[in-house]
Design goal:
single chain, mainly alpha
Length: 339
């Protein structure tokens, strides 16, 4: 009896109309949503109230400092600003900052995880004067080799683009700097998956599988073209045009250009008079014949075997491999004839 009366009271409670009293707010339902909010003001403790705009040099330095920002968009926009500032400067005007100061800031972005940042970095590098970059080619190669051997495929592809730019700006300087010939060749071969020590056993176990996808074929074609450009730069004669321009004279003033002051900086670095001793990989190979001999000793067998396998794929890969083989045949022809 008691339970039934309780159920009737509970059912009647659901349909009771609330009593409204004058002067009091209407009671809110149980499922009401609170839509009230408070706005917070932003207080800047240090505000610049200068009436004059910052100079172009200070703006340039400011964007250089933004290259280490954690925001990808900020790094990309700063690179875009620097590229525009360098490209639009007056003719024969010096850079806003020397290349020796700018390169250590921008080169670490070679390994940046954002594709947009790496693309903008390449545009910035192409805007720099070639003569200023050639003196810092050894520093540039450190980041290029790190990018070529990176685990991420996108970073490897971007590093190949930067290596192509470096070969266009100063191919002879690149292959003549410490480690520029042997170490760079080893990095390019590692990107292909080719072992540097040639033997049929190691090749069959370590050979890379390029697959049949269009992306992998395009990547292989691109890497083969980069290898051809690197070999072409290494097989060029670096002694041509090394000395100052000399008037054409006959006997007894023959070979005058060989005795003039060299145009290149630190022209006796290959002698190793100062600094630690260099091994075979970090050695400076300034002469064409030196580069030919070390290539014949360490790389020709392995690269030749890899090119033969690439030719069997046909298509663009086969044509690119044939182009590399032509460069090797032309570059090593005089060495084989001499031997």
């Amino acid at each position: 009896m008691g339970s039934s009366s309780k159920k009737r009271k509970d059912k009647k409670k659901d349909f009771q109309k609330p009593k409204l009293k004058i002067g009091k707010a209407r009671p809110k339902p149980a499922n009401v949503t609170d839509t009230s909010f408070r706005s917070k003001s932003i207080v800047l403790h240090q505000q610049s109230l200068a009436t004059t705009a910052p100079s172009a040099i200070s703006q340039f330095s400011r964007h250089v400092s933004f290259l280490t920002s954690r925001n990808d968009s900020q790094r990309r926009d700063s690179l875009s600003y620097l590229t525009t500032a360098i490209s639009t400067r007056p003719t024969n005007a010096p850079l806003q900052q020397p290349v020796s100061v700018l390169l250590p800031k921008v080169l670490p972005l070679t390994l940046d995880g954002s594709h947009g940042v790496r693309t903008q970095l390449l545009k910035l590098l192409r805007a720099l004067p070639p003569t200023d970059v050639q003196d810092h080619m050894e520093q540039v190669l450190l980041y290029i080799r790190a990018g070529i051997t990176h685990l991420a495929a996108d970073i490897r592809t971007s590093a190949m683009d930067i290596l192509t730019w470096a070969l266009e700006y100063g191919g002879n300087t690149l292959v003549s700097c410490p480690g520029g010939w042997v170490k760079t060749l080893k990095s390019v071969m590692a990107m292909q998956g080719w072992p540097t020590e040639f033997s049929p056993a190691t090749w069959s176990s370590d050979r890379a599988s390029f697959g049949k996808s269009d992306y992998e074929n395009k990547t292989m074609v691109k890497s083969l073209n980069v290898m051809a450009a690197l070999l072409r730069a290494g097989f060029e004669d670096s002694t041509e045009g090394d000395g100052a321009e000399a008037p054409v004279q006959g006997f007894p003033l023959t070979d005058t250009a060989l005795h003039l002051i060299s145009k290149r900086t630190n022209c006796f670095a290959h002698l190793g008079l100062f600094g630690p001793a260099r091994d075979e990989e970090t050695q400076i190979y300034e002469g064409r014949e030196d580069r030919q001999r070390i290539f014949y000793k360490r790389f020709q067998g392995s690269i030749g075997y890899g090119l033969e396998n690439a030719k069997q794929k046909g298509g663009e890969v086969g044509r690119a491999a044939a182009g590399v083989q032509n460069v090797i045949n032309e570059g090593m022809k005089d060495l084989e004839e001499a031997d």
